[in-house]
Design a protein that fits this description.
Chain lengths: ~950, ~80, ~160
Amino acid sequence: MDTHPHYDDVDFGTPERVSDTAVTLQIDGFAVTVPQGTSVMRAAVQAGTQIPKLCATDSLEPFGSCRLCLVEIEGRRGFPASCTTPAEAGMVVRTQSPRLAQLRRGVMELYISDHPLDCLTCPTNGDCELQDMAGAVGLREVRYGYEGLNHLKDQADLSNPYFAYDPSKCIVCNRCVRACEETQGTFALTISGRGFASRVSPGESEPFMGSECVSCGACVNACPTATLMEKSVIDAGLPDHSVITTCAYCGVGCGFKAEMKGNEVVRMTPWKDGKANEGHACVKGRFAWGYTTHKDRILKPMIRSKITDPWQEVSWETAIAHAASEFRRLQEKYGTDAVGGITSSRCTNEETYLVQKLVRAAFHNNNVDTCARVCHSPTGYGLGQTYGTSAGTQTFKSVEHSDVILVIGANPTDAHPVFGSRMKKRLREGARLIVVDPRKIELVQSAHVQADFHLQLRPGTNVAMISALAHVVVTEGLVNERFVEERCDAESFRVWRDFVARPDNSPEAMEPVTGVPAALVRQAARLYATGGNAAIYYGLGVTEHAQGSTMVIGIANLAMATGNIGREGVGVNPLRGQNNVQGSCDMGSFPHEYPGYRHVSDDATRLLFEKDWGLSLRKEPGLRIPNMFEAALDGSFMGLYCQGEDIVQSDPNTQHVTAALEAMECIVVQDLFLNETAKYAHVFLPGSSFLEKDGTFTNAERRISRVRKVMAPKPGLADWEVTVALSNALGYPMHYEDPSEIMDEIARLTPTFSGVSYTRLDQLGSVQWPCNAQNPEGTPLMHIDRFVRGKGRFMPTQYVPTDEKITPRFPLLLTTGRILSQYNVGAQTRRTENVRFHEEDRLDLHPHDAEDRGIQDGDWVGITSRAGETVLRARVSDRMQPGVVYTTFHFPESGANVITTDNSDWATNCPEYKVTAVQVVKVMHTSEWQDAYQRFNANQLRLLQEKV
Amino acid sequence: MNHDSTARAQHLIKMANDIGAFFEAMPDQHQAARDVAAHIRKFWEPRMQRSFLEYLQSHGDTALKPVVREAARTLNA
Amino acid sequence: MNAMTTRETQAVDAALTRFRGEEGALLPVLHAVQDTLGYIPKQATPALAHAFNLSRAEIHGVITYYHHFRQTAPAQHRLALCQAEACQARGSRALTATAEAATGCRLGEHSDDNRWSLEPVYCLGLCASGPALELDGKLHARLTPERLEALIRHKELS
């Protein structure tokens, strides 16, 4: 572990300031030059002097309350606080003098007179700023005694599963309150009372769990004492070393410090220098890592010949040899194309790359797909067609320069919480906000956030909306003609302009379709086109539709027409669902593309890979995930290598998926747990968690970050080693000593990655692709002077209603989504204390729809679609619009995907999760599917227990 | 073809028409047909292309949008 | 959480309507609600938070910061006794003892039947004529224990 680069975290006391003007001042005799606006405190740190402080930390705006950071400034009276005093040219500052020492000691005396003297048994002993400051100011006595009024008997609040709040240790520095406001943007904390009665108060002086707290941990990070403290540290003691790595949850890709004691993680803290998160985190990344050591993890390979047989524990050699011989047998019996592989966006770039290589080289076909198929494949297609590359255009930091933010079909405060916080910060600074979403999500209205426009459209009408917005831009003269002329393909623009200008695309014509008043649409379009830097952020509410790709194209068109591409503060930004969706797509785990988005039929590219891999490769596209299921049911696809992906729970129309899996003869699942797919598997290869692997993840802003091993792989072999072993057993030998060599191969074969190596990543911390000879430090912003494809291409976006139409039999539209505390199929988060925040999936419905059906909050309701039926408990919510119902899909027994249908995006087959026509009725018992699932599941768990 | 595989072939017809529904918004319908054909060649695995064409051979192409019909003819070639 | 009574809801709605759209309206709204009801119902906090686009915590922080605001119904009679230096020098401690004995509640508390509350205040601006107090909104100065007893008896009888 000594090879890991060392990143130190100095606390500069106050945030960095950016200015064109620099000022030079003297601090304790040393000259230091800083940008104008920088505090004296920060300047001092830069000059090498730490001024004592308690209420200041560089993630928060200065507050000036603790009175420890007082300094003397020549020519000024008194003792100004260095945190709130801006540095000025020519200033002469003294940070130490007998008078200052006396003042600071006096302040510390007061603090300590109301603080327990239990340092030796305190969990932060050795990592406490109060303790440090007592030392720094030379506190030797407390003249006030400890007998008077104090807070020492205040009771601790242990309601949050991950951290404790002990008010007896609180010095009321306000750092936690400010962190909740400035960093997280939830405003769940306040100081209640005044004077001696001041207390940090979650909500209305209630336990943390009942308050508005979202458990992001920012307050715990900010606390200088043991008042807010991770329970894991209280239990285990302070860490002795740490390793910088990358979170394995959502596509924000936060940098984390895994703080270790021996080879056990004591806590995960957000990495201050991580560019995706800048020191912030959410409840998942920061706290929900307990699944990595959960008892449900399977650590030994297992095989069985039928899924009704008990599992048999075997050695790695036996399992690999068995899997390989099965794949070979199936290929001999049913043909070369009868087997394939599925990669996972949870796995590293290196692992994903190896699986696609195994499929292309060892299986000798192109039947490899990734779970991005079911989330962001339309992004790849749509942005590829219009801009020439399949990725978001900006950095996350770019949002700090946005004047107008258009959020479409995304719920960042739940699904991308750390970016959501960065966006909210910009909104508090005055950026305008347009939300296009069927639901009233948190961004529409919450503390200190109020959308200027909420275009609350009906599910399935995105394309009608985007064409209507474009209609306004084109017909009201809001096109950025200069940008279009210089940067875009003229003929395609003319065709598009004529198309969107048609009266049938006007907001008025589309009003009956979308259900959104035309006047609102017109105002929102004007704001987007004329409000300054306008940025679009979108999520699966755009892609997971029958017209997902059309909508991505529509978004790209709108941004081009208004010139909102190619600089800070603008752009088109897909918010990726999983940690490595971008990476798994980049790595060529698509049936039609090699790494770097190059089609398999492209001779030059294929030749490159053939030469490097030493064999001939196929030039026809392979099967996409839904096509694999169809082929399985047709009897021509019989074997699957599925790495880290739970297709049974996550893919639509569950009964169709399980029928396909039952039709296959060999399913090999590589995972941490016996997930829903593994219950249909014949070979189980135990996988490693992100804490056990070396590799890289690529986040939604194309940022490649290192994942570093903090403990040995629990199953003995790392995931990449398993793929190598399988390939070797299949007769296609792979030779790698270390994942870094896999990245070297990727760099060698992929022009956009040619500058990437582990050494480079260690130097830079992280890098955004393209990273090559032209851009050795990476590419934060794309399409600055020209689009990747040359000229930007407009394409008409004809609205086509989905087949999921409401009828008297299915009068409601179901849409689905994620919640903050749980993550996708929940395999990880369900095995943590996060279940205390969300213990079941519920069906949200509007009070009118509930009343019509005699449904009350908490009632069991049956949800029936053309595909199937399931039963959930109802939650009556005015976040919904009448006619639309909503559920999350984090629990397998919920069967959310039993209801979703086979409909999919026309271009990519991305499933239409977001629109299903359903009926909802009050019921007394679970659905037939759920009963069958319970029996099947109990049986599979028994077969696991009875393993031999 | 048994009942299930006919249903699956019909699914391909629907997929092809969905592709057609996007490209038919282009002013030049011949170009649109070429784009449909290119899309199918680029993204459909040979088995899918084969079942699609076989179905058209045995059931005719009346279920197809005109632009897809034109595209299918070039796939045939 | 218990819902507000109709009277409480009306008071909160009326206050919100009256100051709608005005900048910095939270304090005026809180005053208006308390003026109408005598207190600001705890259950009003979510509605106030929603109306001002603030969090519940923030509303709570403001209400608890000001001693003037209260979240429960006030006692029938409110006696605020000055405890500051000047009044202490002129006998406010004895006066406080008298008040406690006569009302049956301790300083800072209210009586079990909620007829009386005794509140400490620090200066009523009557230092030259202390000891001073405020009884049901009316100031009284140069008090003696006897005069205070008479005042309390008078209120008891009214």
